[in-house]
Amino acid sequence: MENILVDHSETVISLVGNIPVLLEADMAKELFRQFEHPENSCSQIRFSNISFGVGAARVAEPILSSLKQQLTEVHLSTFVTGRSESEAVEVMGILSSALEGCSLKTLSLSHNYLGEKGVRAFGGLLKSQSNLEKLYLMKANITKEAAKAISELIPSTEKLKVLHFDYNRTGDEGAIFIAKIVEGSTSLQDFRCATSWIGSKGGVALVEALGKCCNLQKLNLMDNMFGIEARKPLARALLANAGLTKVCLAECVAAKKSLTKLNLSGNRLKDVGATMIGRALACDHNQLKKVDMSQNGITVEGARNLANAVCDKPNFTLLNINGNCISEEGIVEVKQIFGESLSLLGPLDENDPNGEDESDENDPNGEDDE
């Protein structure tokens, strides 16, 4: 058991494999014996990188069942890796039965090859969840059938604040079922559905559902293929959520090689955001004509990256970076980048040279992950 990190604090039971560990009944009995306390006050379960066999799941079942009235968080990731489909589905059913009836605030089933069979194996647990605030299903093989099953099984997502569906093969039809979940999630603050094979039909359904949410703070739809049909519904969704503080658009911009105009004015993107947009625009985008990044708290760093990205575009006509925090020296530097093509640079008379970029110092690509 030297490859399993065990944390049994007052409120958490955590089993995490340093390397993938196949857990069978004998080892499970030894592991779970330490959790057999009648006054156990555990409220969180975390199993990761430990693959349960049916025997191990049977050992865990009564202990999990004894805790379910007090559990608020359950995290189960890579817990059936290497098992046959039939055994994996049986293990999921056993754990679901053990946890059925608990009132969770957080449920993570990320990094498991669930598919429809896996989702329905967790049917008992999902059907008993009406108070979920955070649901993570990333890299969980959420196909269209699995997405349909989730939308059918969870009775209420009214309290849901965080919903992450990244890196699945959801597709258009699956996105329509996710949209139904989103429509019922009136408290949603953080939504991610990146890299999920979603095209125009599913994209439109999804962004129209997001437009009915009014509390979004973070939105990540990158690396999908929504197409031009989703443009107006997405704009309406962004307008409906005035509290948005983080929207991942750079990858979307990079993918739109035929883009002619980009207006991200007044979004407080700061140097981090301006640099990401600059990188996205740097390659190809030869049809690009206008970029408006005014009033974004940009200093010389962001302005420099934007100028270098667009100054040599063959059809480019205007870069607007007015109303930012570019110093006088920075303005001179940006003008030097454009050289004899200064007509491509808009007015810079409303910049505050004493302004500061207050962007987070964290990695701009960083995200909370489960």
TrEMBL record:
<dbReference type="InterPro" id="IPR045203">
    <property type="entry name" value="RanGAP1/2"/>
</dbReference>
<protein>
    <submittedName>
        <fullName>Uncharacterized protein</fullName>
    </submittedName>
</protein>
<dbReference type="GO" id="GO:0005096">
    <property type="term" value="F:GTPase activator activity"/>
</dbReference>
<dbReference type="Pfam" id="PF13516">
    <property type="entry name" value="LRR_6"/>
</dbReference>
<dbReference type="InterPro" id="IPR032675">
    <property type="entry name" value="LRR_dom_sf"/>
</dbReference>
<feature type="region of interest" description="Disordered">
    <location>
        <begin position="345"/>
        <end position="370"/>
    </location>
</feature>
<feature type="compositionally biased region" description="Acidic residues">
    <location>
        <begin position="349"/>
        <end position="370"/>
    </location>
</feature>
<dbReference type="InterPro" id="IPR001611">
    <property type="entry name" value="Leu-rich_rpt"/>
</dbReference>
